[in-house]
Amino acid sequence: MKTFFKLAALLLLTNLSFSQDKICDFETDIATDTSSTRVLSEKIIDESIFGNTTSFLTFKLFEVDGVLGVNFQYLQKSKDILSPICIDKNTKMVLELSNGKQVKLVNSTDSETCNKLQYDAINKNNVRVLDGFFYFTPENFQDLKTEKVYLIKITAKNGDVNFVIKPTLNSEIYKEKSTPDTYFMDYLKCLGV
After folding, report:
1. Which residues form the signal peptide (predicted)?
2. How far is it, in rounded angstroms, from Cα 108 to Cα 93?
């Protein structure tokens, strides 16, 4: 009987250690009497390596004075020519959830931003980087705490950009394994949401 209890305790402790919450790693965490800014460290959400082209999408969740949002960066590099992507005040980010609902985020800026073409002479690659800040709207917001994200769509000015989100991502660029489909489930709680 003692062996049974020892085995049960060991299994319970092992299970608890594997189910621990993700670590809340902050890039910025500043609070004063009048304002607060919290930014989580960058996490890779999507990565694609196909032929001569490599691209990846990263997110940083942030909260500034009670307003919650996502800073995204979409980087593309290729030996081939890359088409520009432009976002403006009408651009939305739509998160398609596993329960069939959508969560919409709105662009934070009124001006147009495009990923300008740069050239990496050392590696002989064309490079385009698009950065943006999107804020959450109230509808379906609570679903992000319990539902996985399977598709991210950015309604760019010159056409939609879609990212099919994987349950497990073994990043060749970041050299880490992650679960991007549970990103919001894992990290929203870091911002007290």
Report:
1. 1-19
2. 11
Residues 44, 173: contact at Cβ < 8 Å? yes
C-alpha span between 121 and 96 (Å, rounded): 38
Read off the pLDDT of residues 28-39 as tens digits, 9 standing for 90 and up: 999 898 999 999
Q: Is 32 helix (H, G, I), strand (E, B) or coil?
A: coil
pLDDT digits (tens, 9 = 90+) for 61-88: 999 998 999 999 999 999 999 999 999 9
Residue 185 phi/psi, 5-degree rounding, is -60, -40
CA 77 – CA 72 distance, rounded (Å): 17
Range of the domain at 87: 2-191
Q: Helix/strand/coil (H, E, C) string of 122-137?
A: CCCEEEEEEEEEEEEC
- Express each pLDDT in 143-183 by its tens digit: 999 999 999 999 988 889 999 999 999 999 889 999 999 99
Q: Give the global pTM.
A: 0.83
Report d(CA 56, CA 60) in Å as an integer. Answer: 14
**Structural domain total, the chain:** 1
Q: How far apart are CA 76 and CA 56, in angstroms?
A: 7
Structural tokens at position 104:
């919409």
Phi, psi torsion values for 142, nearest 5 degrees: -65, -25
Q: Which residues are paired to 73 by β-bridges?
A: 58, 131
